[in-house]
Amino acid sequence: MRILHTGDWHLGHTLREHTRAAEHAVFLDWLVSTCGERQVDALLIAGDVFETANPPPYAQRLWFDFLGQLKRACPRIQVVVIAGNHDGSSRLCAPAELLAALDVRIVGTLQRTASGRPLVEPLLIPLRDRDGVVAALCVAIPFLRSIDVVAALPAVPVAAVDGELLLPRPGELPGGKADAADPVLAGMRLLHDELFAAARAQLRPGQALVAMAHGYLVGGALSELSERKVLGGNQHALPLDLFPDDCAYVALGHLHRPQALAGREHVRYCGSPLPLAMPERGYRHQVAFADLAAGRLLKTWVKNTPRPVPLLRLPEHGELDPEAALLQCAALPPRDPAQPEELRPLLEVAVRLRQPAPGIGERIAAALADKAARLVHIDVVRAGSGAPLAGAEPGPALARLSPEQVFVRRYQKDHDGAPTPELLAAFRELHEQVEHEAGR
């Protein structure tokens, strides 16, 4: 059987004020075609379908339109979806019973029995090959909050205030494993052990064990501007050995850079299908495939996703002085009236200010008014020392400085050199005016 692994779509995402709806629509149309052309049997979506817990109506429409088109193009395909940390699990799961009739399974939360035991069965999903035979069993683990994970630990006092977990002290934790001192990792390990034990009990000869999860695993490369650190951040990076060696494939979501972990081609982040922040413009965004037969992995491979809207930066690396930035903006291609607004390139301009440059933002925006690129952001980098105004001295030092000394230090913090005589004269005139007004 063939699995296609994707995730981190973030439908409803905007880059500053620019919607990405048209780009997502291109990707989803491409994904429908790819599933048909590549004869995909199961589509695994590893979380963060939406950008927010309450996505805008157009984002929900993209989602449901996609599912309808997919089932019309590929009637036999199975779809398995887990909630990510951006998704609102209740909203994602609201139509779950209806979508189950279309072979779309959504796992939004970890349910528990009245006694607190995790309900394992909803997380174990059989996957069928093109002949309709169960060829794999997917352990589908949605994003779990810290308090959900720690609840798996026996006899551990757990409390929460305003939704924030109050962790017990290490001495209060059971167990003798290396991570027993961390209740989040200890709870996650117990939960994974139970899930995979239950999965193995259901596996039949010739069936592969597949896992899907959403979180930050040790060794994964983060995109700092668009990925929220989950489960407490790097201190709760999940260890790779949570996923046992008998997993034929592990489909991960959360990190936007596609990558295999620790040289294991079968443990993989598919990455996001399009760049969600300017630093991600250099990623090779893709979906991943896993081919399975006789209970084992035959191969993994990837296919790059389309990028209908280029993300540009002036300059590609570093920053430009203001006049150089204006010249390069003026040299950009003019706008093509036939090109749809939502498919025009997105542009970030990086400027280094060695001296004050009042109005530089307005001048750059004006230079781009009739250009093909849409201005996303002006990244201003100041060339000063960045030193604190009072130096390393204790608090009263700033109070001992004259207003003019504070002004000069503030200037040097942001800019090269000292203020010009004209600027100092203007400051002194304003200062005298303020003192005169105060003395009235």
Listing every helix as H and every strand as E from the N terminus to the C terminus, the arrangement reads EEEHEHEHHEEEHEEHEEEEEEEHEHEHHH
Q: What is the number of helices? A: 11
Amount of beta strand: 15-25%
Ends: how far apart? Answer: 86 Å
User: What's the total count of β strands?
Assistant: 19
Question: Poorly predicted ranges (pLDDT <50, ≥5 residues)?
Answer: 156-178, 231-235
Protein architecture, described:
The protein has 440 residues and is an alpha/beta fold. It has two domains: 2-304, 4-Layer Sandwich (Purple Acid Phosphatase, chain A, domain 2); 311-439, no CATH class. It has helices at 21-37, 57-73, 89-93, 96-100, 146-150, 183-202, 322-330, 360-367, 396-399, 403-414, 421-439, and strands at residues 2-6, 14-15, 18-19, 42-45, 78-82, 104-107, 124-128, 134-141, 159-161, 164-166, 208-214, 247-253, 259-261, 264-269, 286-293, 296-304, 311-314, 346-353, 374-382. The strands form five sheets. The protein has a six-stranded mixed β-sheet. Strands 7-8-11-12-14-13 form a six-stranded mixed β-sheet, with helices on one face. It has a three-stranded parallel β-sheet with strand order 17-18-19, covered by helices on one side. Strand 4 (42-45), helix 2 and strand 5 form a beta-alpha-beta unit. The chain is elongated, with a radius of gyration of 27 Å. 33% of the residues are buried. Mean pLDDT is 86; it is low at 156-178 and 231-235.
